[in-house]
Amino acid sequence: MPFIQLEAGKISTEQKEKLIVGLTKVASETLGIAEDKFIVLLKENDLDNWGTGGKMLSKVLGR
């Protein structure tokens, strides 16, 4: 089964649903594999666990 994983900050339930539907649809169309064969994993990470330019992402984004 094809596996799609996306890591991001906090995601609302509505955003999660749109991502799962959209990622599955595009991957299915691109690869020619039925949508029901895909598994999608959305991993939410606290912005304090990410860093860019030597700074925590939460501070870079002002959150």
UniProtKB/TrEMBL annotation:
Keywords: Isomerase. The keyword Repressor does not apply. Pfam families: Tautomerase. It comes from the Bacteria. The keyword Isomerase applies. Residues 4-59 form the 4-oxalocrotonate tautomerase-like domain. GO terms for molecular function: isomerase activity. InterPro entries: 4-OT-like_dom, Tautomerase/MIF_sf. NCBIfam families: DmpI. PANTHER family: 2-HYDROXYMUCONATE TAUTOMERASE (PTHR35530:SF1), TAUTOMERASE-RELATED (PTHR35530). Belongs to the 4-oxalocrotonate tautomerase family. This is 4-oxalocrotonate tautomerase.
